[in-house]
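User: Structure please.
Assistant: Input sequence and predicted structure:
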Amino acid sequence: MSNQTLTEQLEAVAKEFKANAPIEAQIKIGQMIEEVQKSGIASGKQQGEKAVDFKLTNALGRDVILFEELAKGPVVLVFYRGGWCPYCNLQLKAYQKILPEIQAIGAQLIAISPQKPDHSLSLQEKEGLEFQVLSDPNGLVTAKYNLLFDVPRGVRELMEGIGVNLAEYNNTSKWVLPVPATFMIDESAIIRSSYVNPNFMQRQSPEEILRELKKL
């Protein structure tokens, strides 16, 4: 898999899901994606809008403040579902590979999910991630970026059926998820590019991130 692009890797996992998952499960997940798309409840911050400042803890329990980080240079801000999601793990691994190029441009990468810090830490260690992985309890920051939605009951039952208890994983009573998104934010805290896709099986390619960053 190592010489495949991120898009090819994601397509391979999606194909495997379609080949092996029960039809009922595929229908429920398809409906969830469609509902989120239609409702506009998770449309994300748009290009040209000002980023919302936040203070969240990283995998080691240290506070990270967005506007303090922006004082050092542009930030690629990634919202992902959690370490239990195979698509997210492929995405973060692919972004780790381009981290030296991101840093060479003078920017940094910050990833956010609702999972609790100890899950972020194990993900960071397992995948060898060298960028900040932040925990967003109850998805409060995710909501400010217009990315948060409630997991429908049918999908919740599917996840519980494969042993993913999202409430426990995220240390909250709520079953909420972010729509995966990637924002390029410049030093004046303006979002210069916004990639928001309710279809969690697709993510912004590393090549596109570098292309967008070079425009800043």
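The chain has one domain: 6-215.
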